[in-house]
Write a structure and sequence with these properties.
Layout (H helix, E strand, L loop, with lengths): L9 H16 L3 H13 L5 H17 L3 H13 L7 H14 L3 H18 L4 H25 L2 H14 L4 H13 L3 H14 L4 H14 L3 H14 L3 H14 L3 H13 L4 H14 L5 H19 L5 E3 L5 E2 L15 E3 L1
Helix pairs in contact: 1-2, 1-3, 2-3, 3-4, 4-5, 5-6, 6-7, 7-8, 7-9, 9-10, 10-11, 11-12, 11-13, 12-13, 13-15, 14-16, 15-16
Bound molecules: zinc ion (ZN).
């Protein structure tokens, strides 16, 4: 009915436009496309409405997975120098396309365009720039990764330089620089890059642990690595770091500093079951050379730590829907079943 509607003016055009968007949001991309195409084809509409409809059409194509067509619509809008749609929004749409097609160089250009336009529009906040810089660095790292796979180290250096200029603090960049040194068997250098990345963001430990450990053992730096991780934990008491320290101690032996740390952490910190398991393993290995009363001291600490872990953990659970609760209830408050609550 809408498509056969004879005269669309600037007021009804808005309704059409929204209707198309609604179809797209519901996943009915075909209908969204035909509504927006219909708006564009009307001869009596002004430039503003046509360009808004074109932008929506580009989004429809994108949602339908027709990336080539989406790209050409957005490119056309960009070249038309439209004042109705922000250049930043168009460039951002292009960026998401190039990210999907993994055309990293083009993605970099689109992101730079977004950054520039935001600055020009005055909406630029340092947070925004950081987001774009971080994206551009990721793309340079993707390019460098590709070149590294091909063994083209000269190209890799070029991309790294550009990434450095964009966002020097990027942990992705540090980790990649570590990988390159590792690839060249320059283990001392790779170790320092990996450590830098881990200090910046300890979540990376799970991904970088093996390579960091190998870099340390190849360069005779296992003691150094253990000490650096201890220092890192002091600054940022993160479970990943704690577990890494324990894992290294198991492999390369422990020392007094680690003993103190394990004692302190078990008593004072709320740990995950995995961390408690590892810490108790550490105590078990140590206790081979200890007398009876020293051994039970270790057991007391593990017991305290488990107690801490259980604080605040719900004791009951509905067997029907899995809902957890602190007190026993005859009827589950989530699924309303009777007699389904049991100990968690
Ligand atoms: Zn239930």
């Amino acid at each position: 009915m809408f498509l056969n509607y004879p005269d669309i003016d600037e007021y009804t055009a808005e309704t059409f436009h929204l209707l198309g968007n609604l179809f797209r949001d519901r996943g009915e991309v075909d209908r969204a496309l035909s509504v927006h195409q219909n708006v564009i084809a009307r001869s009596n509409l002004n430039a503003k409405q046509k360009q808004k409809a074109m932008f929506a059409l580009g989004q429809d194509f994108f949602a339908a997975g027709m990336l080539d067509r989406a790209e050409s619509v957005f490119q056309e809008l960009l070249e038309s120098n439209t004042k109705w749609i922000s250049k930043a929004a168009i460039c951002e749409s292009l960026r998401t396309i190039y990210e999907q097609t993994q055309e990293w160089q083009k993605a970099i250009e689109a992101t730079q365009c977004t950054k520039k336009s935001l600055k020009k529009d005055g909406v630029d906040k340092s947070d925004n720039t950081k987001k774009q810089d971080s994206l551009i660095t990721h793309y340079y790292c993707e390019l460098a990764d590709e070149s590294l796979q091909k063994g083209n180290l000269h190209e890799v250096d070029g991309f790294i330089e550009k990434a450095k200029k964009t966002y020097k603090q990027s942990t992705r960049l540090m980790s990649l620089q570590g990988d390159i040194a590792y690839h060249q068997k320059d283990y001392k250098v790779s170790l320092s890059y990996y450590l830098k990345a881990i200090k910046e963001d300890s979540r990376l430990l799970s991904m970088l642990f093996n390579k960091t450990d190998e870099s340390a053992s190849h360069s005779d730096n296992t003691q150094y690595l253990q000490n650096e991780l201890l220092k890192t934990y002091q600054k940022n008491p993160d479970n990943n770091v704690f577990e890494a320290i324990l894992q290294l101690a198991e492999k390369y032996g422990s020392n007094e500093k680690i003993d103190t740390l394990v004692d302190e952490v078990l008593v004072n910190k709320k740990l995950t079951i995995k961390s408690i398991f590892k810490a108790s393993g550490y105590i078990k290995d140590k206790s081979k050379n200890l007398n009876h009363s020293e051994r039970s001291l270790g057991l007391i600490k593990v017991n305290q730590s488990l107690g801490k872990h259980l604080q605040g953990v719900p004791s009951f659970r509905c067997e029907h829907c899995g809902y957890k609760m602190h007190d026993y209830l005859w009827r589950c408050p989530a699924c309303n079943h009777w007699d389904t609550v049991d100990q968690a």
